[in-house]
Write a structure and sequence with these properties.
Layout: E1 2-4, E2 10-13, E3 22-32, E4 41-48, E5 54-62, E6 69-77, E7 81-87, E8 92-101
Antiparallel strand pairs: 1-8, 2-7, 3-6, 3-8, 4-5, 4-7
InterPro entries: Nucleoplasmin, Nucleoplasmin_core_dom, Nucleoplasmin_core_dom_sf
Domain Nucleoplasmin core: 1-99
Pfam families: Nucleoplasmin
Length: 133
């Protein structure tokens, strides 16, 4: 996790460029902590899009009196990524997890895994129907 405040407005999570593993960073919770004022605190994620251009996306707008906490349900990001307090003075705490997956491991190239190994008892899911008004 990390904490964004008026004096520390950004935090960058990055991995060693020589590391050949795949890294996944997942953001779970963004919340105001002790000492927060009743003001809008906007947290942005700054990363790169598919064209390698920098892009900033707001992920949370917290206010002590109406929404002091936001669950992001393990919002997955690929490092390097910067978290920035775009508005407000915080403190805002961000929590999540980091997973490292070695690139040489590929589940689908495993010789022991074949389509025949799938359980014949798997149930077929019913189609999703539109809601009635």
């Amino acid at each position: 996790g990390c904490e964004l405040t008026a004096s520390t407005k950004s935090y960058t999570f990055q991995v060693d460029k020589e590391d050949d593993s795949d890294h996944i960073l997942a953001l779970s919770v963004v919340c105001l902590t002790d000492g927060a004022k009743d003001e809008c605190n906007v947290v942005e994620v700054v990363g790169r899009n598919h064209e390698n251009q920098e892009i900033a996306v707001p992920v949370a707008n917290l206010k002590l009196s109406c929404q002091p906490l936001l669950s992001l349900d393990n919002f997955k990001l690929q490092p390097p990524v910067t978290f920035r307090l775009a508005a407000g003075s915080g403190p805002v705490h961000l929590a999540g997890w980091h997973r490292i997956v070695p690139r040489e491991y590929d589940f689908f190239e495993d010789d022991d895994f074949e389509d025949d190994d799938l359980s014949e008892e798997e149930e077929e899911l019913a189609p999703i129907m539109p809601a009635k008004k």
